[in-house]
Design goal:
Aminopeptidase, alpha+beta
Length: 167
């Protein structure tokens, strides 16, 4: 699926091996609030933990989402986030595996713009869009605003949300 990004300052490019550092930073930014609550670890322990978690997640995504597209989100050529997306996940629709922005780029409309572009493309393909979202993720409000609906829950933590094209 080639997502057509309407914001001309934003672009997507396939991840490369040399992107592991920035991808790790992006992942780390998604865990900042959580790790602030872990007072018994020093910064080095937190950094090592996050790197291990990132590498495990990265390898899992690469092995288990065959056929997916893995992108670095760029704004004016600066790497600011990641978008992992599968155009035809389990032949059921589009799966957003992950979308994340560095914290300094959040709440600027970038994520919502990209999501709207994904929904527009899925609409032209007449496909549903799904994503797993943690219950405490602040982006949950955005998904609700974009008409995603909860279709299942895992361990009381992850909600599987789905958006369907409305005729």
């Amino acid at each position: 699926m080639i997502v057509e990004i309407t914001d001309t300052s934003i672009s997507l490019r396939p991840i490369q091996a040399e992107d592991l550092m920035i991808l790790s930073e992006i992942y780390s930014s998604t865990r900042e609030k959580e790790l602030k609550q872990v007072v018994e670890w020093n910064d080095e322990q937190k950094k090592a933990f996050v790197l291990q978690q990132f590498m495990a997640q990265h390898e899992y995504y690469q092995k288990n989402y065959i056929g997916a597209a893995f992108y670095v989100i760029q704004k004016n050529k600066d790497s600011i986030g990641r978008l992992y997306i599968h155009e035809n996940f389990q032949e059921k629709g589009v799966r957003i595996i992950d979308i994340a922005l560095l914290s300094q780029w959040q709440n600027r409309g970038i994520g919502s713009s990209i999501l709207k572009d994904i929904l527009a493309k899925a609409s032209t393909l007449n496909r549903a869009v799904s994503i797993h979202v943690e219950t405490f993720n602040p982006a949950m409000k955005l998904y609700k605003k974009l008409d995603f609906e909860k279709i299942s829950e895992t361990n009381g933590v992850y909600h599987l949300l789905e958006w369907k094209h409305k005729n």
